[in-house]
Amino acid sequence: MSAAAPQVEAIELRPRRRGLPHGWRSLSVYLFVIGLVIFAAAFADIVAPHDPAQQDIVNRLQGPVWQTGDWDHVFGTDDLGRDTFSRLIHGARISMRVVAIVIPAALLIGTLLGLTAGWQLGKVDRFIMRIVDVQLAFPGILAAVLLAAITGPRLSNVIIILTIFLWAAFARLARAETISLRERDYILAARTIGAPGYRILGLHVLPNLVNSIIVLATLQLATVIIAEASLSFLGVGAEIGTPSWGSMVAEGRKLLSIKFWLVGIPGLAIVIVALVANLMGDWLRDFLDPRLRRSR
Fold it and tell me: pLDDT tier at 6 (50, 70, 90 boundaries)?
């Protein structure tokens, strides 16, 4: 008598679902916010419903739409009757213009000097790093005030000061990474066969710095926005009358107790954009650093 063959249950094979990597939804939110600000800044003349300098004394100090205002002035008006929403959009243009110049300039200067210091070492390294130490020890706000006292408040002053005081961060990063890479086996092999230094730096060292530089540049975006707003708040930033988030806060502070939105709206814009830039930088650091990816 033969034994009954065991029955094997059929197992349905389903294709594995490939979801997005961890945190991509957060990155989408960050990119949306930054993209919205960039779009508003690029097309401020089209997006803004009013001329930011146009005064409407009849409707001065009108509240935002959720209080006593109307949809013609969504965020209300200031003490001169200028539309707050339009000034907020044009203020974004000022901030993004400073970011678009300062970050690439500081990145380029700092990375080149950092690569040079980390590769050459010796007297060259000591000279460059002493400049970095002096720059870090000198307060940037004081330098901006002194420069404004000589030339008057100008946006170009803000760009010059911020570039001078931000390149050091990129230089220190590039120097540290270069020193850690210059003793790697493939670098030593390239030097042994007589490859020139600039070729080694361009083909082997610099590509390994890209991820770290991208992360630092993203984090510095928040620094530039806050610094520009701070200098404009002190009156040493953009030209008088130019709609800047910092100058909007300065102009509205005298009415803070009764018209809080004049300070709250531009202040909230500064906080949101700076926070999103920092969060995006943290996300990129976690994503681009293989050690952090393995630790998840």
Answer: low
Domains annotated on the chain, with CATH: 40-294 (1.10.3720.10)
CA R_g for the chain: 26
For 83-114, the pLDDT digits (tens) are 899 999 999 999 999 999 999 999 999 999 99
Residues 94-117, buried b or exposed e (16+ Cβ, 10 A)? bbbbbbebbbebbbebbbbbbbbb
**Helix, strand, coil percentages for the chain (3-state, nearest 5):** 70, 0, 30
Q: What is the DSSP string of 176-225?
A: HHHHHHTTSHHHHHHHHTT--HHHHIIIIIHHHHHHHHHHHHHHHHHHHH
Q: In the block, which residue shows the tokens 């974004």?
A: 92
* pLDDT value at 69 more than 90: no
Q: What's this model's pTM, rounded to 2 decimal places?
A: 0.83
Q: How far apart are CA 94 and CA 229, in angstroms?
A: 10
**Segment among 42-46, 55-59, 259-263 with least mean pLDDT:** 55-59
pLDDT over 70 percentage in the chain: 89
Here the tokens at position 258 are: 């009764």
Number of continuous H segments (helices) and E segments (strands) in the chain: 12, 0
Compute the residue count for the chain. 296
CB neighbourhood size of 41 (10 A): 20
